[in-house]
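From the pipeline queue, job 12 of 40. The input is one protein chain; the requested action is below.

Action: predict structure.
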Amino acid sequence: MNFRSLLLVFLFLLALSPEFRRSFEPQKRLGSISPSPLVNSYLTGQKRGLTKDLKTIHQELNLQHLMTPSGLHLASLLLILGLFFKGQKIQFSFLLVLGALVWPYTGLDSFKRMILFGLLRKNPLKPLTLKTSFILTFVLAFITGQYFKNPLSFSLSFIFIGALILSRNRLYTFILLGFIQIIIGNWFESTTSPMGIILGLTISMISPIVFPLFILESIFPALPFSFLWEGLLKFMHQLLLIKVELLFLPLIPFFFFIRHEQLKRPALALSLLLTCLPLGHRPTSSHFSAPPPKQFSKSTSLHNGSKFLYDNGMRCYSRLKGDQWSHHCYK
C-alpha cells in the first residue's frame, strides 16, 4: 500500500460518512478528572467549560485532535511506562489492561484503535510489521462497526496514521500531513492557513511530552502546566495574525526540496497549494453558537451536516465535528 491508494480509500470513506453520521449516539463517557477544563479536554475528551477563545485557537491551529484521546495520548502513556519498565511483554500487558479498562466507554474510538494497533505490533507470539498491524487494525475496527458509529473519526484516524506509517522520512511526513489537513479543511468548507498548518503540526509533535504534565496537574491541581500551555497556544495563535507579503514564499518548499528526487512532486504540489491559499489569518463574520431555528427558507446538505438559510439574511450550520454536533449561526 502506498500513499496514493491510502488517499483513495480515505476519500471513499469520507464520501460515505454523511450516510452514517446520524447513527452515532454517545452512551458512556469518561468523567471530569481535573478542575481545569483544558486538562479535562486533553485527557478525557470532555470539552465542557472550555472558553470560546480556546476552542477557536484549537480550530485555527488545527489542534482539535488534541482534545480527542488518540495515538498521541497513547504514545505519552507508553513514554511514561518506558521510564520505569522495559521490555515488549510489559508494554503488551499494559496495553491489554488499558484496553479492557477503556473499552466500555464511547467517544474513545481513536484511542481504542491505537491500543489494538499496539497489541498487534507488540504481541509476544508473533510481532507484526507496522504496515500489517495498520491494515489489520482498521479491518478489524471496520468489521466491529466502528466506522458506522463514527465514520469521520474512523476516516481521519485512517489517513493520519497511514501517512505516518507509510512516509519515508520526517520531511516527507510533514508535507503529507499538511496536504491532508488542506484536503480536510476544503471538505469542511473552512479556510486553511499554511501558517496554521505549520504551527499546528509543530505543537502536535511535542504534545506527547506535554500530556504527562497534564496528568500530574490532574493529580496536583495547584501545578500551572495548563496555564503555561494556554499562554503558548495564544502566542502561537497571534502569529496567524501576521500578514505575509513575500510573493515568493509559495516557491520556498519547491526550491528547498529540489535536490531530493523523491520529494520533488509533493513539494511542487505544496507550492501550488500555497499559491492558492491565503497566507495570513482571514477574519470571519460575527457568529454565535445556537441550534438553527426551524423557520428556514432553504436547506442544503453538506459533507458533514446541513446549511440553513433564512429570509432575514442569517445562515446557520449544523455539523458533526469529531464525535459531537456543532451548531453556529452567522449574521
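Job complete. Confidence is low (pLDDT under 50) at residues 21-26, 243-249, 278-288.
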